[in-house]
Amino acid sequence: MKQIEVVAAIIRKRDKIFATQRGYGEFKDWWEFPGGKMEPGETPEEALVREIREELDTEISVDKFLCTVDWDYPDFHLTMHCYFCSLKSEALHLNEHEAARWLTAATLRSVSWLPADDQILPLIENELR
């Protein structure tokens, strides 16, 4: 089975978390935490900074490691390293996603999350409470 290693930014602003809706591919319209594939030689933190710059035209601080999720999708195995991050600037531009929302602990489950991303919701809810 194909193996994919990615990083995910759980961007936090006070009591809210930033979520993005995929605008392309097999999982179009599902919600996820922004991020993407690590490139050879990159640390997870370097990959996150690069991916968020590419996807959202903004700069982040990588604040704290949350967890690593391993998930088997039908066509590949995903390893996703998740980090709490904060924005260095309020400016955000969706370059790859079709929508985005700031979600609270109460609204975190109001969107249809990709299965791997769904696995970390209890950890995020604990952090927000």
- CATH 2nd-level architecture: Alpha-Beta Complex
Order of helices and strands: EEEEHEEEHH
Overall mean pLDDT: 96
Q: How much strand?
A: 35-45%
Q: In one word, what is the shape?
A: globular
The CATH homologous superfamily corresponds to Nucleoside Triphosphate Pyrophosphohydrolase
Number of domains: 1
Parts with pLDDT < 50 across at least 5 consecutive residues:
none
CATH fold node name: Nucleoside Triphosphate Pyrophosphohydrolase
Number of strands: 7
Number of helices: 3
Task: Give structural attributes.
129 residues; alpha+beta; Nucleoside Triphosphate Pyrophosphohydrolase; seven-stranded mixed beta sheet; 3 helices; 7 strands; globular
How would you characterize this protein structure?
The radius of gyration is 14 Å and the shape is globular. With 129 residues, it is α+β, with helices and mostly antiparallel strands. The chain has 3 helices and 7 strands. The protein has a single domain (2-121), classed as Nucleoside Triphosphate Pyrophosphohydrolase (Alpha-Beta Complex). Strands 1, 2, 3, 4, 5, 6 and 7 form a 7-stranded mixed sheet that branches. The chain has helices at 44-56, 115-118, 121-128; strands at residues 2-13, 16-22, 31-32, 35-37, 60-72, 76-87, 97-103.
